[in-house]
Amino acid sequence: MTGDEATRTDPTDLLALDAQLSDDERATRDRVRALVDAHVRPHVARWFADAVFPRELVPVLGEAGLLGMHLEGYGCAGRSAVEYGLAMAEVEAADSGIRTFVSVQGSLAMSAIAKHGSEEQKQHWLPRMATGEAIGCFALTEPTAGSDPAGMRTRAVRDGDTWVIDGAKRWIGLASVADVAVVWAKVTEDDAGDGRERVRGFLVPTSTPGFRATPIEPKLSLRASVQCDVALDGVRVPADAILPHNPGLRGPFACLDEARYGIAWGAAGAARDCLEVALAYAQQREQFGRPLAAFQLTQAKLVEMALEVSRAQLLALHLGRLKDAGRLEPHQVSAGKLSNVRAALDVARTARTILGGNGVTLEHSPMRHAANLESVRTYEGTDEVHTLVLGRHLTGHAAFR
């Protein structure tokens, strides 16, 4: 498809970005879009209204190769960063909560095992997680340590051939439905072996005595997903439950960057969906004898939304090309997450105004997207944290403390 053809068939593609994709990339996008249209869009408003996480969707996503999509081997699809990003944009165009599941499973839990686990751990967990047979969660955030993971209080103490973990986690996606939790805990100085205290990751089957996950309810956002409080009360795991590689906060941060990369794409997808919904509504809704789309103020809103969507898509695609080339830096991921989520929220809110009173119902997606994006704005680093990351990059001064 040429750029002119793309523009004619999709007026929201202002910059003919479709022409910048390879045939394989377009095929991946179209395949995931078809899956979402068939299995997610018809049901997602009801899932959101009833606060239901659709467990039946998990094997569908696994069979489509979306779980751990960017990972190599162990039954994972091994697709490019751009293909993974395009897939996340399509999933989040339907709902942020469903993309959150894919992200927690693949970019957090599976990435932690793939990046930092032993060969035995990878062989045991990754193939089953890739199909959706096993679900994972990533237990880092705590009630008193959200934006400051170095302040975590969860501890792991070596006791003979076992580790004993005590502590609490909060806002842990999938914890109540997960089979395994990647739990991050501080290891005491003696157990670190070199007189230092550091953060280590542990693979904890959620059936382990002392592990308790309680869904956080009621929520006004991500209602088609599940987030939990987790209590760890004398949780005892074998010595080989520890993730052996990359000790310290570099471990979870490397996984968070994978998730943040997907968020930059996902937010662009949510924004695109809001624009498309608002444009279609404005074309068919008549007031004062003509469509809303014929009014100057409505056109101004649509143009501003289209520009924001185009900028978000360009940024996401640029980050994807950098990632595929092995040149993506953490501060660039922060720029993508901060900018695209902020833009998506603006687009969602503006789209709702075009829908008028009808926009507050679940018949239309923008207000649901806006509610979900408030969570996306907060998790994997708040606006403030990513602003400070970029400030440190610009000035050389860390202003976190």
Would you kindly provide a written description of the structure presented here, covering whatever features stand out?
This protein has three domains: 3-131, Acyl-CoA dehydrogenase/oxidase, N-terminal domain (Butyryl-Coa Dehydrogenase, subunit A, domain 1, Orthogonal Bundle), CATH 1.10.540.10; 136-241, Butyryl-CoA Dehydrogenase, subunit A, domain 2 (Beta Barrel); 250-395, Up-down Bundle (Butyryl-CoA Dehydrogenase, subunit A, domain 3), CATH 1.20.140.10. Helix 5 (81-94) crosses helix 9 (250-284). Strands 1, 2, 3, 4, 5, 6 and 7 form a seven-stranded mixed β-sheet that branches. A hairpin with a 2-residue loop joins strand 2 (155-159) and strand 3. The chain is of the alpha+beta class and 401 residues long. The relative contact order is 0.12. The chain is globular and about 80 Å long. The chain has helices at residues 3-9, 23-39, 44-50, 58-63, 81-94, 96-116, 119-131, 189-192, 250-284, 296-324, 330-355, 366-378, 383-395, and strands at residues 136-139, 155-159, 162-173, 180-187, 198-205, 211-215, 227-238, 286-287, 290-291. It is built from 13 helices and nine strands.
Helix and strand arrangement:
Layout: H1 3-9, H2 23-39, H3 44-50, H4 58-63, H5 81-94, H6 96-116, H7 119-131, E1 136-139, E2 155-159, E3 162-173, E4 180-187, H8 189-192, E5 198-205, E6 211-215, E7 227-238, H9 250-284, E8 286-287, E9 290-291, H10 296-324, H11 330-355, H12 366-378, H13 383-395
Parallel strand pairs: 1-4, 2-4
Antiparallel strand pairs: 2-3, 3-7, 4-5, 6-7, 8-9
What labels would you give this structure?
3 domains, disordered N terminus, Butyryl-Coa Dehydrogenase, subunit A, domain 1, seven-stranded mixed β-sheet, flavoprotein, Butyryl-CoA Dehydrogenase, subunit A, domain 3, 401 residues, alpha+beta, globular, two-stranded antiparallel ribbon, 51% helix, Butyryl-CoA Dehydrogenase, subunit A, domain 2, Glutaryl-CoA_DH_mitochondrial, 13 helices
